[in-house]
Amino acid sequence: MRAQFVLSEIGVGLRRNLTMTFAVIVSVALSLALFGGSLLMREQASTMKGYWYDKVNVSIYLCNKTDAESFPSCAKGAATEDQKKEIRADLEKMNVVQKVQFETADEAYKHYKEQFDKKSPIAGFVTPDQMQESFRVKLKDPTKFEVISTAFSQRPGVQMVQDQKDVLSNLFNLVNGMNYAALGVMALMLVVALMLIVNTVRVSAFSRRRETGIMRLVGASSFYIQIPFIMEAAFAGLLGAGLACVLLVSGHYFLVNNWLVDQIDLIQFIGWDAVLAKLPLVLAIGLLMPALAAFAALRKYLKV
Question: N or C end of the chain: which has fewer CB within 10 A?
Fold first, then answer.
């Protein structure tokens, strides 16, 4: 097989179907960019879960003297010193508990002022005696919250038991929802790209039916005749995959590194190693997907 002839045929095919080739490149680029973005978003969600779940505490809030009217469990008044000692002793005996830390009302007030003094208009009206003392419980396994809740939610002197993991669940649900949406749009764009590839190959084969007929008459094999069409599709797909890689790298650089990192301090974003690890997969899919689609289309449409 002469490489020069194959390359010349590829150039001829690309020039004849320039508009459709451009559409293939753009659709492949968008679908693969969404595919790579969904993979990165899934990895980001896993990183966030691992980072935050490792820091999640279960908070056991104790009754204070102002809770009697608002919480039936605090009808007998503020938690006594004996109740606090009993709760701590029972927590330290539990196998699921890794660490127990007691936070006084003054410490809770100090933390509240640090977090909300400049953000909340009512922060100045809150006094230390309105803050709850609490036990901050670090679990060996964050999923064992129910063990703590069941054991202490009805205890005398306990206002409520709160799992901080529930506070993060909405964020993780949002990230997962965005991931599924990206996968759905990616699937739609992938179907569009495949249809464009098939139509482009079909038009190209039809426009060169005379040449392919002559090649068959002089003894050319089916593979020799088909290879220029397959390589045209593969080349267009590779260009689209390259553009998708540019979009992924640009998105991470401009959107994440130069904007989101400054806007959201609480999230540990994935680094360049995660982005660069996805690029070879995107390039491989961009090369193989159009080639296989073209091969399947040629079996049906290229009559030689």
Answer: N
The secondary structure of the chain in percent helix, strand, coil, rounded to multiples of 5, reads 70, 10, 20
CA terminus-to-terminus distance, the chain: 18
Rounded-to-integer distance, Cα 245 and Cα 251, Å? 10
Look at the pTM and tell me if it is higher than 0.90: no
The SS3 of residue 159 is strand
Query: Of the given ranges (62-76, 111-125, 236-250), which has the lowest mean pLDDT?
Result: 111-125
Phi (first) and psi of residue 163, to 5 degrees: -95, 115
Q: pLDDT tens across 257-297, in order?
A: 888 877 776 677 888 999 999 999 999 999 998 888 888 87
Q: Hey, CA dihedral for 121, 125, 130, 133, is it positive or negative?
A: positive
Contacts of 59 (CB under 8 A, 6+ apart): 134, 135, 136, 137, 161, 162, 164
Residue with tokens 């009754």: 63
